Amino acid sequence: MGIKFDGTYVKNGSKVIANMKRTDELKDGNSSSGKTLGNIKRGDEIKDGNSSSGKTLCNIKDGKNIRDGSSSSGRTLIKISDAAKKIGTSATGPSTALVWWFFAK
Q: How many domains does the chain have?
């Protein structure tokens, strides 16, 4: 069974492997107090860890593609719509990019 993201929980089969109970942070496991894997505190940039000043992993500045790093002209990694399909969601926003980066890249 593949990864599924329902907007709050990331599941592998029936097991919760991560959560977004806070809308701007992806946490390990089922608990909102779990280790923060990444965040979207800067709107269209996916950052490592829980700080808005963390390393930028990727971005969705054009709204269509997940791009490497912080530049809107960075290398395209995947279309956001294709990333959504890979993680089993219909959402095409920053949370999709965040979950895709950590669990489907």
A: 1
Dist. CA 13–CA 61, nearest whole Å:
31
What is the b/e burial string over 12-28, where b = at least 16 CB atoms within 10 angstroms of the residue's CB?
A: eeeeeebbbeeebbbbe
State which residues form the domain around 55.
3-103
The Cα–Cα gap between 43 and 11 comes to 24
Enter the tokens of residue 105: 């890249």
Give the position of tokens 């492997």: 17
Provide the 3-class DSSP secondary structure of residue 85: helix
Q: What is the pLDDT of residues 4-28, one digit of tens each?
A: 999 999 999 999 999 999 889 999 9
